[in-house]
Structures
1.
Amino acid sequence: MKAFKLKEVLWVVGLLVLSRLIPHWPNVTAMGAAAILAPRWLNHSKLSLVVPVLALLVSDLILGFHSTMVFTYSSIFLVSWLSWRSQKENLSGGVELIQWSLGSSLLFFLITNFGVWLMTDSYQKNIYGLAMSYWKGVPFFVYDAMGTLMYLSLAIFVRHNRKLAVLFHK
């Protein structure tokens, strides 16, 4: 496999930042897809694990920091790490796309809603408050899963379309 290039990394980070800055439905960004694909497409390098986290940091410099950043960043890093550990370059079809989309969105949902419950005053600090945090987060989970699946599909289509692949120097 070829080593990844700085230009590719900058393209990916730039597109990820843009996906967070343009108007979008809540949680419908390319971050989940990038966490899944970066390790696979950037030569399974350990450095590729931080590409999505770097994009989060750059976009948060513009959007502003928040009290649950450690949970957000950790969940994205964990998805990248799981993808990196899988040691597969490509996803093998629609079922695997759906599995990764739902799995990564579920991890993000569980970790970040726990963080909202723990770090903010939005919910009581008991089991009922935690349950309410998860209950109220369900629509965001659905948006995240749909966004991850959409961006995964789009990225795979662009990468495998010869006319568009010039952007990624396949």
2.
Amino acid sequence: MKQWVVVFIALIMATGSQAAPVYIELAPEFVVNYGDNGRLKYMKAQVTIRAVDDEAALEVNYHSDYLRHELIMLFSRQLPSIINSPEGKEAMLKEATKAVQRIMRNETGRPMIDQVLFTNFVAP
């Protein structure tokens, strides 16, 4: 998957197109245990990152393992009340965006991403 994104971005850069956001799907889906002192539960989520431009997309791809690790740790710390409410999911996405931006800023000097998005989310 990473190779296709790199090829796609290289083609876009070769055509001289204007800087536009690039959407990067973090595959495979995230499957994470979460919960408090009670019974552990799980969530499954497909996550997409919106990079600010083609260069940022290449950097996000390069650091994708680090980003996945940070997101797994973030998701696994959540309480059921957060995971099961629309407001909680929004708050979790905002926290994920800040975490990913922090990593990219530390690694590259720029935040590089606008937003973290759920394209699929299941928490039975």
